Amino acid sequence: MQSTTKELKEKALAVMDQAYSPYSNFSVGAAIRTKAGNIYTGCNVENVSFGLTICAERNAIAQAIATEGPTMVLEEVVITNRNSEGDSIPCSPCGACRQVIAEFAHSETQIQYEGKNKEDVRVSMTELLPDSFRF
Ligand code: THU
Fold first, then answer.
1. What pLDDT, in 10s, does the model give residues 37-63?
2. Looking at the 3D structure of the chain, how many domains does it have?
3. Residue 48 C-alpha to ligand 1 middle, in angstroms?
4. Which CATH number fits the domain that encloses residue 78?
5. Which residue of the set 7, 10, 46, 57 is catalytic?
6. pTM of the full structure
7. What confidence score (pLDDT) does residue 35 get?
8. Which range marks the domain in which residue 84 is found?
9. Residue 41 main-chain phi, psi, to 5 deg
């Protein structure tokens, strides 16, 4: 694993501990690296009105935009998760997060998440969301 990817994974694991997930007991952490070379993190924040829950990936992206502004470009996204037993499960980003990542990514932006044998799965943006919606 490249040192920057290792750092992203460590940061995703750390921010995952901050998750507010009393309804699902499922914590998610995301760490992203931008073209400008900065790293941002986010965790999931649930709500009693379930539909208002915000995913970790989208929270991290909001942090990046708040700091770098609308020209922010994503180079790498690393996502971690833990269930109530403290285990990670196979978990790729949800459809909503894929579309939001695509908004700020390029075709070769790398997305890493935990696969079915707890291994790190790495895919490009095009692999994660082929033919994403664009005007
Ligand atoms: N979740 C994320 O944070 N990211 C995803 O890509 C999938 C789901 C969160 C939302 C909710 O708090 C919990 O995981 C269970 O769905």
1. 999 999 999 999 999 999 999 999 999
2. 1
3. 14
4. 3.40.140.10
5. 57
6. 0.97
7. 98
8. 5-128
9. -130, 160
